[in-house]
Amino acid sequence: MDLAYRRENLRLAAPFTISRETTVEEEVLWVEIRHDDVSGFGEATPQAHYKESVDSAAAFLDQAEGLLGHDPFALEAIGRRLAEIPGEMAAKAAIDAALYDLCGKLTDLPVYRLLGLDRAGPPTSWTVWLGSPEDMARRADIADDGRFRRLKLKLGGRDGLDVERVRAVRSVTELPLMVDVNEYWTLDEAVDAIVELEGLGVEYVEQPLLAGDPDGPGLKRRSRLPIYVDEDCHTLADVAACAERAHGVNIKLAKSGGIREAVRMAIAARALGLGVMLGCMVESGLAISAGAQIASLCDHVDLDGNLLLAEDPWPGVPFDEGVQLPPDAAGLGVHEAVPDPR
Ligand code: MG
User: Fold this and answer.
1) Residue 2 has pLDDT above 90, yes or no
2) What is the mean pLDDT of residues 175-191?
3) CA dist., res. 74 & res. 40, Å (int)
4) Please, which pLDDT band fits residue 152 given cuts at 50, 70 and 90?
5) Secondary structure of the chain in the HEC alphabet?
6) Four-residue CA torsion sign, 301, 286, 310, 23
7) What is the dihedral of CA 94, 97, 101, 106, to 10 degrees?
8) pTM of the model
9) 249 CA to middle of ligand 1, Å?
């Protein structure tokens, strides 16, 4: 099989702020894997927070082509060969997605059918990025127009106003709410805030503490709301330890290295009695379609990356009554938009 890739920038409709950074553009890699005359595609969104970049991902992809072999259906063997090179999970996820896209096209089946899964998962949340309480309430009010069935609020402002942010949003919407602190609370801050958030009807709290914080198990014991971990949980190897510090895990393909490992993680999480959430990065419909293929395995879905873009360069993921559906077409079922000649 042949592998080619190119760099692209995804432009956000508005600057996206979380506790540690503001993003206006996301640099990604689009990977194409060719087998005979058929091509599969996948997207890599390397995260600086995880010490990955488009340069490091590109260097990995240069090495990876020689490890693919000739059989696109030999996913387990290909995965083993790629795993011998450490890290670069975003690039591995792009290869995994491109191989699944290819297998789906070769069998004329959508990937979720190839995997034997249901098509529809839970509705996606819409992310209200970090801002002042008034600004977040204004944006939540705009989002509560019938398109979205739940909201995810980014917290971690380090200004003592996080509970006020949730109170302000709650004053303008009845939608189910969850919050993501992106590692910016201490144990005491978390315990105090969570009591207030419970009163405001927040359903669960994502990554309140720094990844690996030794207070994690203590917070799990004391928290009045379920804790989900994201920065703490990357691959299957992390899931058992997460059961000590959380009630659920947030699986993302860009962290797991693709669909195959994500399915293993969901099953392991279930065996440990953990809830399963599916998340995403700022990414196009190409990566969102890969996530949507396994959304039915999850309790909570946060797949709004392509909806945050000024324009989705890989359209085709149906957004139906708040649910990001996998396209009803072979493989990942999305196609690169033809640039407007104007
Ligand atoms: Mg998160």
Assistant:
1) yes
2) 97
3) 15
4) very high
5) CEEEEEEEEEEEEEEEEECCEEEEEEEEEEEEEEECCEEEEEEECCCHHHCCCHHHHHHHHHHHHHHCCCCCCCHHHHHHHHHCCCCCHHHHHHHHHHHHHHHHHHHCCEHHHHCCCCCCCCCECEEECCCCHHHHHHHHHHHCCCCCCCEEEECCCCCCCHHHHHHHHHCCCCCCEEEECCCCCCHHHHHHHHHHHHHCCEEEEECCCCCCCCCHHHHHHHCCCCEEECCCCCCHHHHHHHHHHCCEEEECHHHHCCHHHHHHHHHHHHHCCCEEEECCCCCCHHHHHHHHCCHHHCCEECCCHHHHECCCCCCCCCEECCEECCCCCCECCCCCCCCCCC
6) positive
7) 100
8) 0.96
9) 10
CB atoms within 10 A of CB 18: 18
- The mean pLDDT value of the chain amounts to 97
Q: What is the pLDDT of residue 19?
A: 84
**How much distance in Å is there from the Cα of 252 to the middle of ligand 1?**
9
Roughly how many angstroms between the first and final C-alpha of the chain, as a whole number? 36
How many whole angstroms from 317 Cα to the centroid of ligand 1? 22
125 Cα to the center of ligand 1, angstroms: 12
Q: Residue 313 and residue 263: Cα distance in Å, rounded?
A: 27
Position 20 scores a pLDDT of 85
Q: For residue 198, give the amino acid letter.
A: E
Confidence check: pLDDT of 68 > 70: yes
- Residues surrounding ion ligand 1 at CB below 5 Å: 180, 206, 230
Q: Is the pLDDT of residue 341 over 80?
A: no
Residue 342 has pLDDT above 70, yes or no: no
**What structural domains and CATH numbers belong to the chain?**
2-108 (3.30.390.10), 126-324 (3.20.20.120)
